[in-house]
Amino acid sequence: METTNSVIFSCPECNQQVEVHAKAAILNTLNLYHEESVPKPIAETIIGNTVYCPKCGDRFTVMLDTHSATVPLFLRKG
Ligand SMILES: [Zn+2]
Predict the structure, then answer these.
(1) How far is the CA of 11 from the centre of ligand 1 (A)?
(2) Measured in angstroms, how far is the CA atom of residue 60 from the centroid of ligand 1?
(3) Where are the domains of the chain?
(4) How far is the CA of 51 from the centre of ligand 1 (A)?
């Protein structure tokens, strides 16, 4: 079953909430994500997308935040 997945961003100019639709469908009941915690399959479909803020009219590109304050780590055997 295909569901619509969306990611909510805050406009860096005016703080307006901007919703970006993702093409990927993942089997999950939760289909609305905030920019800080986006599942990888969803993120991969929207990175590089152009987004227009409906309030201030500015144009933005969805980017992977490589300066994020938190990063996922894990223990690999060996
Ligand atoms: Zn804006």
Answers:
(1) 5
(2) 9
(3) 5-61
(4) 10
Q: What is the pLDDT of residues 17-76, one digit of tens each?
A: 999 998 766 665 668 999 988 988 889 999 999 999 999 999 999 999 888 888 878 999
- Dihedral angle at the C-alpha atoms of 37, 41, 43, 46, nearest 10 degrees? -150
Backbone angles phi, psi at 51, to 5 degrees: -125, 135
Please give the distance, rounded to the nearest whole angstrom, from the Cα atom of residue 62 to the centre of ligand 1. 14
Half-sphere exposure of 11 (CA within 13 A, CB side): 16
Distance 67 CA to ligand 1 centre (A): 22
